[in-house]
Amino acid sequence: MAQSPAAAPNPATVAACAGCHGAGGQSPSPDIPSIAAQPRTFIENQLVLIREGLRDVPVMKAVMGGLTDPEIEALARHFSALPAPKTAGALQQDKALAGADLAQRALCGTCHLPGYLGQNQVPRLAGQQEVYLLATLKMYRDNPAPGRDTLMSAPLQGMKDTDLQNLAHHLAHQGP
After folding, report:
1. How many other C-beta atoms can be found within 10 angstroms of the C-beta atom of residue 9?
2. Phi, psi for residue 114 in degrees, rounded to 5
3. How far is residue 12 CA from its own chain's centroid?
4. Fold match between 11-80 and 93-172?
5. In sequence order, which residues have a C-beta less than 8 Å from that of residue 66 and are 6 or more positions away?
6. Where are the domains of the chain?
7. Fold type of domain 11-80
8. Which fold, 93-172?
9. Distance of CA 65 to the CA centre of its chain
10. Which residues touch 71 (CB under 8 Å, ≥6 apart)?
11. Are 115 and 174 spatial neighbours (Cβ–Cβ below 8 Å)?
């Protein structure tokens, strides 16, 4: 028996996501992550964590609260298949080189893969919003929140704010 094609996501839900994460999953706001080209499993996991209240994102909870697993799977397939975000802002060579050295020493490419494209439940960092990356790196270093991967705290311990700025700049400028 042939499998039925995967269901497309509800256009109204996609539009609700685009309200913050941007058309095509490419965020226009520096403090909101782009979700285009994120690994499908990562998106699914995050949406379930938010829906179940294990990750506190109140504005998303309003949208996610009533979604079924198949609806979450459809959203994840949709956004993971979109083109990767384009890096915003000019490359600052000194920050990028310092960030590349930190990324190598912290072994970022081990889980996030070389090129920082992400895999499975590990997010894509390449081309992500620099302001968002910096805030997230600080959160992991200083106070990992419930529903987030606490394994990220260890490699960031001891890094100064300037280190995290350089690392975020480097990661944001990877990819297309």
Report:
1. 20
2. -60, 140
3. 22
4. yes
5. none
6. 11-80, 93-172
7. Cytochrome Bc1 Complex; Chain D, domain 2 (1.10.760)
8. Cytochrome Bc1 Complex; Chain D, domain 2 (1.10.760)
9. 20
10. 9, 10, 13
11. yes
Q: Tell me: the pLDDT tens digits for 132-174?
A: 999 999 999 998 666 566 788 888 989 999 999 999 999 999 9
In this structure, what token pair is assigned to residue 172?
């944001």
pLDDT of residue 149: 65
Q: What is the DSSP letter of 107?
A: T
Residue 4 has pLDDT above 60, yes or no: no
Tokens 């058309």 found at: 23
- Give strand pairing partners of 138: none
- Please state the length of the chain: 176
Confidence (pTM) = 0.90
For helices 93-105 and 161-172, give the axis angle rounded to 10 degrees: 100
